[in-house]
């Protein structure tokens, strides 16, 4: 077995959390630091945003949904590419900051929502899910993906981008959740990017809008 095959095998050993991370967990993180993951200051984030935007197959989208928007850094960058954008998070501090980040965009709405229980009505022709799926239990991940795919119109694009969790101890990460998305029969993969920091995939819902 080659080194690459060994690393791939190791990536398949992590399990999802037994229960989804709670709202209290995220509220505590924002209480300690208004930007607990350094979304506005880390090179990792700036580079990831640039690659995410460059990977969008279309110049413009009619209706975008961004679940787990945090403080709105990616939301603000997506806004010029969309006619309408709905972003949600369930941390009140994050929602407040995200609203401030997009205050110059009248076509952007930021809501507080619990996921996957409070997914909005669709349809959307773009869904961008970044750095949130590995916080979900196996059951909630399935519910989340069911809901996102149901709300994605035929021919619409689903973008998933997640940290790949290098370094011990092995943690559930993008290498675990992206194959779950890829297994969805309704989707076909258009773009794949993987490096030492994160994995990004763009999927399109099969069919014609």
Structure write-up:
With 209 residues, the chain is α/β, with parallel strands linked by helices. It has a single domain (3-205), classed as Vaccinia Virus protein VP39 (Rossmann fold). Helix content is 34%, strand content 26%. The protein is built from 7 helices and 7 strands. A 7-stranded mixed sheet has the order 3-2-1-4-5-7-6, with helices on both faces. A hairpin with a 3-residue loop joins strand 6 and strand 7 (198-205).
Give keywords:
single chain, alpha/beta, 7-stranded mixed beta sheet, disordered N terminus, globular, about 210 residues, Rossmann fold
Summarize this, please?
By secondary structure, the chain is α/β, with parallel strands linked by helices. It contains 7 helices and 7 strands, in the order H-H-H-E-H-E-H-E-E-H-E-H-E-E.
What CATH first level would be assigned?
Alpha Beta
Poorly predicted runs of 5 or more residues = 1-11
Largest β sheet strand count, sense and barrel closure: 7 strands, mixed
Global geometry: globular
How far do the termini sit from each other? 44 Å
List the topology elements.
Elements: H1 3-11, H2 23-32, H3 43-55, E1 61-67, H4 73-78, E2 82-89, H5 92-101, E3 108-112, E4 124-130, H6 138-151, E5 152-163, H7 174-182, E6 187-194, E7 198-205
Parallel strand pairs: 1-2, 1-4, 2-3, 4-5
Antiparallel strand pairs: 5-7, 6-7
